[in-house]
Amino acid sequence: MNPESVNASNSEPIAVLVSRRPRKGKEREFEQALSDTINTALQFPGHLGVTVLKPQANESEAYRIIVKFDSGKHFQEWYHSPEASHWFDVLARLEEKPANLEMMTGLETWFTVSNGTVRPIVPPPRYKMAIVTWLAIFLLIVVINLLFGSFLASLPMLLRTFILTVVLVALMTYVVMPRMIRLFSGWLYPKPR
Asked: Most buried by CB count within 10 Å: which residue of 27, 110, 138, 155?
């Protein structure tokens, strides 16, 4: 997905996965430029943090960087800023080929909140993600059944299931999960002692 296609009026959180491969012998300079780029980006409004995954032995030599913003508007402000252009040019001179960018929204970003640091974020344990997801779905199904249960009961089973799942997925992705993650962030991402 092209970063230009990110809707600046989008108020949902956005995560950008960037893959960058430094030239041989330029790794140290690349890491310093990457660190400077991140420190600059963290000064921009709506920036939620960065996770940097360095290449591991027997893997691709690409660095994977996950950059998070609270909205498409704030992402666009950073992406089109003179500061970003400067650092993108510096990084491009140190890379084998142009960076690859992928945009993530909705389900992909449910559990990618940031603790405001530049260090990699350890994802919560699966059982915690499962509990928060189950609680959100349980509450949504109860509310939907209370509000629309009699209407849904009058529909054929396939149509009822179709409507329920469409509403459930949309609400989970855009309304409920972002709030659940904020609500349970202390439990999902406890501060290191």
From this structure: 110
Residue type, 91: L
In this structure, what token pair is assigned to residue 49?
Answer: 């943090």
Q: Could you report the per-residue pLDDT of 96-138, keeping only the tens digit for each? A: 888 888 776 554 455 554 443 333 445 577 788 889 989 999 9
Find where tokens 């799942």 sit. 165
CA 115 to chain CA centroid, Å, is 13
Q: Which of 131, 166, 136, 172 is nearest to 148 (CA)?
A: 166
Residue spans per domain, the chain: 3-109, 126-188
Tell me which H or E stretch contains 86.
helix 82-93
CA diameter of the chain: 68
Query: Please, how many CA atoms are within 13 Å of residue 45, restricted to the half-sphere of its CB?
Result: 6
